[in-house]
Design brief:
It is a single chain. The chain is of the alpha/beta class and 260 residues long. It has a single domain (8-259), classed as Vaccinia Virus protein VP39 (Rossmann fold). It is 32% helix and 20% strand. It contains 9 helices and 7 strands; from the N terminus they run αβαβαβαβαβααβαβα. Helix 5 links the parallel strand 4 and strand 5 (124-135). The radius of gyration is 21 Å and the shape is globular.
């Protein structure tokens, strides 16, 4: 998936919905047929193109890169070229409402991710939900890299050179709560230790006792030590109207003459 700030090519992966340990497959599970969808950071529209063809969805795509936006439009998306760091998502889509809003590998690239999440809340229709994928900075490969005095940015992945924010599960939950969203569900995509792009090729550390000791400690302290990405389903808290109605009826009964 693409970020909303450019560099779409690095995240323009093919869609394999049979691979349940992938972001597109997990996102697709939560997209209703014939839904109205907003895909923020849509890249060339691979996932949304599938939703249009196979689910009959209506999709608006937001993308910074004009070339990627043009490719997405060719797949049937109603594309809007927008830089989320300098333009308002709420203003650009004012008056529109969506059943699902997708922010796949987007928020970590933004200067003000909470503002974009808050804007997304205002664009939700009744029972609407926000779907977010986010990389996990507490993967044990990052810890191993730091212990080897390494923090090397890459073209994509956990240390993508365009990342401006880094999140753990707890940190992202706090961000979502600050935007007025609660976590409805969470899926964890995993990669084993020493299998991420951080240790590809010759840079991979030797399989000695010290490395295995670090992995063992991480597994004991951090339940997300193998998590590469989180896929969150978020929604605004629902009003508890039945509870309010029950309290109102009780108050009316207690104030009526027959209750005296």
């Amino acid at each position: 998936m693409a970020d909303g700030t450019g560099g779409a090519g690095a995240y323009d992966f093919p869609i394999d919905l049979q691979n349940l340990n992938s972001v597109p497959a997990q996102l697709a599970r939560h997209i209703p047929a014939h839904g109205r969808i907003l895909d923020v950071g849509c890249a060339s529209g691979n996932l949304s193109g599938f939703l249009i063809r196979e689910r009959g969805c209506s999709v608006v795509g937001v993308e910074r890169d004009p070339a990627a936006a043009s490719a997405a439009a060719a797949k049937g998306l109603d594309t809007r070229v927008l830089d989320l760091d300098t333009s308002s998502l709420a203003q650009a889509l004012q008056g529109e409402r969506f059943d699902r809003i997708i922010l796949a590998d987007v928020l970590e690239h933004l200067l003000h991710p909470a503002d974009v999440l808050r804007a997304a809340v205002g664009l939700l229709g009744p029972r609407g939900q926000v779907l977010v994928s986010i990389p996990n900075i507490s993967h044990v490969d990052v810890i191993l890299a730091l212990l080897h005095d390494k923090w090397e940015y890459r073209e994509s992945g956990l240390l993508d050179r365009t990342h401006l924010r880094f999140f753990t599960e707890a940190g992202f939950r706090e961000l979502a709560a600050s935007a007025g969203l609660r976590v409805r569900s969470l899926h964890r995509l995993t990669l084993p230790p020493l299998h991420t792009e951080l240790w590809a090729g010759a840079a991979r550390p030797p399989h000695d006792g010290r490395v295995h000791s670090v992995i063992d400690v991480a597994s004991r302290l951090n339940p997300n030590f193998e998590v590469y990405q989180f896929v969150f389903m978020l929604e605004p808290p629902r009003h508890r109207w039945p509870s309010v109605g029950w309290r109102l009826r009780r108050a009316l009964r207690s104030s009526s003459p027959t209750s005296q």
